[in-house]
Q: What sequence folds into this?
């Protein structure tokens, strides 16, 4: 799944900085990302007190970002997806890589 690449140079630099900081992989499903496929996820959702500072942003693929929505991470579950959601994501990723 792709999205339109960021057009502003400032946005491209910000995404690149976060990808460089965390690795060029989705922090949820570990799929390799590019500037065309990366989104930025608010680790602590902005609606629940998380800001848009770099320390709260994680590289994420479009699909994982949509599934995670505004869920809060916890110490027991730092990636707040159910086992069923993770299995579905893994199946979709496998299909997309064929």
A:
């Amino acid at each position: 799944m792709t999205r339109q690449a960021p057009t502003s140079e400032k946005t491209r630099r910000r995404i690149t900085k976060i990808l460089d900081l965390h690795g060029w992989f989705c922090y949820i499903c570990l799929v390799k990302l590019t500037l065309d496929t990366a989104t930025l996820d608010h680790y602590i959702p902005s609606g629940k007190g998380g800001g848009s500072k770099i320390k709260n942003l994680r590289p994420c693929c479009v699909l994982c970002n949509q599934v995670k929505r505004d869920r809060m991470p916890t110490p027991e579950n730092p990636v707040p997806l159910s086992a069923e959601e993770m299995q579905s994501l893994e199946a979709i990723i496998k299909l997309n890589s064929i």
